Every structure is written in C-alpha cells, then in structure tokens.
C-alpha cells in the first residue's frame, strides 16, 4: 500500500522483518503551480526499537512530502538547496503545500533549483485517508462522509474508527528523542554524504516545529561529544523559523494569565503553555482538538474544495454527538448564552461550504490565535460582534492568545431565506463587500485564498490536520532540562537563521542569535505563514516564500 493511504490501525502486529524499500509516489494537485512544481510522497523504512511494542507495519516507516521544480534535477542530491520542515502542533506535512510550491518557484526565478521537504510525524501512520482521497476522485462529498460516518465501503475497505487504547500505546515511546532521531535517520537515508547535507540542507519548521528544530540543531546523535559529524548542526547549513523561533527549549507559554474560559477554549491554550498530561499517548481534548474533529476540519476543506458555493454541505453531514456539538458551539457561538444553551443551533446556519470553512478558521471568527488564517470575510447578510469566548477588547487583541482581529458572527440563524457566503481574500474591500465590513478587516490584512486553504486541507496525501498528536512530544519539550546531556549547547548559533513572523496572533520572543534575519509580516496570522497566496493584495509576491528563496539561494 502506498504511503498516501495508510493501513488500518486494527492490523497492528509485530514489526515486519523486511520492510519495503523506499517508495516515491507522485500525486495530482489542482494547484495553479502544479505544472511547474511537482509533488510526491516519499516513504522509507525506519523500524522502531522492539520495546515500542506492537504497531502497524506502516508505523515502521517515515514519510515526507517532496516538492521540486518540474525542470530541475530528478535526484535530491543534485538540487541546489533542500529545505526540510518540521510541522507545528496538530499539523501534518500537507500544511506546507502552498509555501513549499511558492518557495520552489521563487527560487527558480532566481536561477536556482531547490527542493522543499515537509516531514510527517510517525504517528500519522494511524490515519485513514481512504474516504477523502476517494471523494477527490468521485467529486462527491458523500463518498467521504458515507465512509467515515455510515460504514460505507470504499476501495474494498471500511473505516474502522479512530485508534484508541492498545492501538496507540506504542506512541508513549515517541517523544522528542524519537522525533529527532527520525529526522536524522531520514536525512542520512536520503542524503548519505554528511558533507553534502551540511552544504545543501536548511532545517526549520512552523510553530512547535521551530523548537523541535532547535533541539535537532543541538542534539548529539552518536553520544560522543568529541565527534561532531553526527551533531545536529552539521546536518544542515542554516535554519528557518515560520512564526516561531529556532531554540532548544520549552515551547512558548500563553502570554498573560488566562481569563475564566470554558474548558473547550482553555484546554488548547494550556497545551501550548506546556500543561499536558501523558496519561494518554495521543492528545485528545474533550472538544475542538482530537482525532475526530481534526478529520472533520479536513472534510470541511474537502466540501469547500468540491463545491465551494454549495449550501449546507458539511455541517448537516457531521455526526450528532457531544464532541462535534461542543466543537461547533466553541468555534461558532456568538455569545455565552448561545454556547451554553445551543440556541440558536449553529447547525441551522445557512451558509456556503466556503463560508463554513471561513467561519471556522478566519481570524475574524476563529477564537484561538494559533488556528487563525486571514482568508477573507463573510457576506450575504448582516453580521454582529462576536462576544464568545471573550469580547474583542484592546487587551484581548493584544494578548497574543486570540489573534489581533475583531471577531464577528452571523446576525441571523435558521432563516431559509438568508444564505451567508464568503468573499475571498482579494474580494475584500470591493463592491461585493457587506456594509460594516470595514469595522473588522481591510485588504491589507487578508493574505490567504479560501480556495487554496480548502485545497491544502483536502488534497495532499499526507494531510494538513494531524489526527494523532503524540502527548509525549510537548511533554518532553516542557521538561527540557532533562536532555542537557544530549546537547551541544551552541548548535543553533553555528548556522544562520531566517525568522519570519506573522504580524498578528501569537507572540514570539526575541532571540540572541548572532546571525539572524527577522522579517515581520503585516496582515499575516499564524497559519498564513504556510498558506498565503502567491499574489498579494498590494501587488507584491508572497513574502514568506520570497524570503525563504532568498535565504536558500543566498
């Protein structure tokens, strides 16, 4: 089975004695740059140690998405540079789809053929993308929702449910040390020459991936401090940080004291500040972030990808259970009364599939700063200020926890005569805009296309949203001092770094790196550094990919 569609977790068994060799499978994309930048999913054998316990055979492999110029060299060793990216929290490799293609093309215009590799965490081997991939072929959302929600058979298999209990127990062994070892082993497998890695590889990441990269830069992989060929800083020649910092230390704490919030809102923020239990090997919060809801986000993107103007495509198809119900209330309720009572019911909103996706992730609606993108604005009917979970006061917008954009909510629910639609990022501030739009946004703060975000959430074979995030990884990062014996503490300072920071959203601290270039990106939010459109509203090309291309070429 190709790495693009992983095996069922119910087939967990002993480690295969002879895992298949390296595979590389090109994948189709509807991206405008698909003809110029080729994408493929690569999988290599990398067995876990026996003490990890039983697991599916696919979990003894490492996978990544590879993007390269269509007219560039076929072999990675012949590329001019290779950017290798660690994903953020709850992210898979597919989150880098836009920035990767834009960066490869930007470098090509500078006369350089580079590659971009997005690493997928080993835990994503448990995911089942059968329904989503089949729906892309049939063009019908029902293909996916019938598979995931109604027991329908697709390609000879049925969805076995989300992995729990003994099926995920092996992830209790997959923390920081294994994650770093996985990147090291993958680089050695794909580029066996250490000198070549040092010359051509640039290591980096988004969000949590910046801290993982910081540890990678300082890790002593052979346990002998007297030798340095196996030191992390000698596996790459520079670092890049996407709304994060390259630092071997604990992730950023949430800025300021948390207000009194419902658990559905406070729990994700507490995870970011390092407050996490490892009682379960997989991070599964009561709502918003857990294996079911992260797959639902991908399906929301799929609905907007297949039928952007279709009305009420995904929400009525979602399961009726407390997890989904409280997740929808958390994301879409306009005030505490609506959140607490469910009245009006968010499921009664008449909205296009694009408008539903926008309402869930746009910075004028999504309550959590680290989940926000700037993808346009709602239109078609009146809107009002959104007061849940907190009103958009200057203190709230300056906290770094809830984003810097004022929040809005539909004025009307459950009216069959009103349909809310979505204006894309480049349609804001035009004749199609609703009255009052200027109170909430402007063209300078909208940078990501809703259509491109929908495509990125649904098309890549290694997905954007991570179902099974290993609890041990952030726990290890928050107790960083216990790894001091593994580190070369000057590793991050030995190579140059480019740090690209979103102008809105979470707060990233200053660093004391001796050779760092920092670039602030007005209008960008935390997700936008990955998804911003190639052409911006001010007429300039997308700035993250331009800066990465300059860094790679220079």
Give a verbal description of the structure:
The protein is built from 16 helices and 15 strands. 54% of the residues are buried. Helix 1 links the parallel strand 4 (81-86) and strand 5 (114-120). Mean pLDDT is 92; it is low at 1-17. Helices cover 27% and strands 13% of the residues. Helix 1 crosses helix 16 (543-553) and helix 8 crosses helix 11 (353-361). It has a nine-stranded mixed β-sheet, with helices on both faces. It is globular. The longest helix is centred in the middle third of the chain and has 16 residues, at 291-306. The protein has 554 residues and is α/β, with parallel strands linked by helices. The protein has helices at residues 97-109, 130-138, 141-150, 176-190, 194-200, 208-218, 263-272, 291-306, 322-332, 336-341, 353-361, 394-397, 450-458, 472-478, 528-531, 543-553; strands spanning 23-26, 37-45, 61-69, 81-86, 114-120, 153-154, 157-158, 201-206, 238-242, 377-379, 383-385, 408-410, 421-423, 497-502, 516-521.
């Amino acid at each position: 089975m190709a790495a693009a569609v992983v095996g069922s977790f119910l087939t967990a068994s002993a480690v295969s004695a002879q895992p298949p060799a390296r595979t590389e499978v090109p994948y189709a994309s509807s991206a405008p740059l698909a003809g110029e930048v080729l994408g493929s999913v690569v999988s290599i054998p990398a067995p876990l140690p026996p003490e990890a316990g039983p697991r599916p055979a696919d979990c003894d492999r490492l996978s990544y998405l590879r993007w390269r110029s269509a007219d560039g060299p076929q072999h990675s060793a012949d590329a001019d540079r290779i950017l290798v990216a660690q994903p953020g929290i709850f992210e898979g490799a597919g989150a880098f789809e836009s920035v990767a293609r834009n960066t490869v093309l930007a470098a090509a215009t500078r006369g350089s053929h580079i590659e971009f590799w997005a690493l997928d965490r080993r835990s994503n081997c448990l995911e089942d993308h059968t329904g989503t991939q089949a729906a892309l072929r049939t063009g019908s959302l029902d293909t996916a929702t019938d598979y995931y929600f109604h027991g329908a058979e697709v390609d000879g298999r049925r969805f076995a449910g989300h992995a729990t209990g003994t099926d995920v127990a092996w992830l209790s062994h997959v923390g920081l040390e294994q994650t770093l070892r996985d990147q090291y082993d993958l680089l050695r497998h794909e580029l066996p020459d250490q000198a070549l890695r040092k010359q051509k590889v640039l290591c980096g990441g988004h969000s949590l991936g910046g801290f993982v990269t910081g540890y990678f830069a300082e890790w002593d992989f052979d346990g002998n401090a007297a030798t340095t060929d196996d030191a992390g800083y000698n596996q790459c020649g520079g670092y890049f940080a996407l709304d994060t910092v390259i630092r071997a230390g604990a992730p950023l704490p949430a800025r300021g004291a948390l207000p009194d919030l419902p658990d559905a809102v406070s729990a994700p923020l507490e995870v970011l500040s390092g407050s996490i239990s490892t009682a379960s090997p997989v991070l599964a919060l009561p709502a918003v972030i857990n294996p079911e809801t992260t797959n639902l986000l991908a399906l929301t993107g799929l609905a907007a990808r297949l039928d952007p103007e279709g009305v009420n495509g995904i929400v009525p198809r979602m399961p009726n259970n407390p997890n989904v119900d409280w997740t929808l209330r958390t994301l879409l309720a306009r005030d505490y009364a609506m959140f607490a009572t469910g009245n009006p019911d968010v499921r009664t909103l008449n909205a296009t599939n694009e408008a539903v996706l926008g309402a869930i992730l746009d910075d004028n609606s999504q309550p959590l700063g680290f989940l926000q993108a700037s993808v346009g604005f709602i239109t078609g009917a009146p809107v009002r200020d959104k007061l849940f979970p907190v009103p958009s006061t200057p203190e709230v917008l300056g906290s770094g926890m809830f984003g810097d954009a004022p929040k809005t909510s539909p004025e009307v629910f459950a009216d069959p005569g009103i349909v809310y639609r979505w204006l894309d990022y480049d349609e804001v501030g035009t004749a199609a805009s609703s009255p009052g739009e200027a109170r909430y946004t402007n063209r300078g703060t909208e940078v990501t296309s809703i259509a491109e975000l929908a495509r990125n959430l649904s098309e890549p074979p290694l997905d954007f949203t991570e179902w099974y995030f290993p609890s041990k990884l952030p726990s290890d990062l928050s107790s960083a001092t216990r790894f001091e014996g593994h580190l070369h503490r000057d590793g991050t300072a030995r190579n140059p770094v480019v740090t690209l920071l979103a102008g809105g959203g979470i707060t990233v601290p200053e660093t004391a790196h001796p050779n760092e270039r920092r670039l602030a990106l007005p209008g960008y939010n935390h997700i936008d550094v990955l998804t911003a459109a190639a052409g911006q509203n001010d007429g300039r090309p997308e700035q993250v990919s331009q800066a990465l291309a300059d860094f790679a070429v220079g």
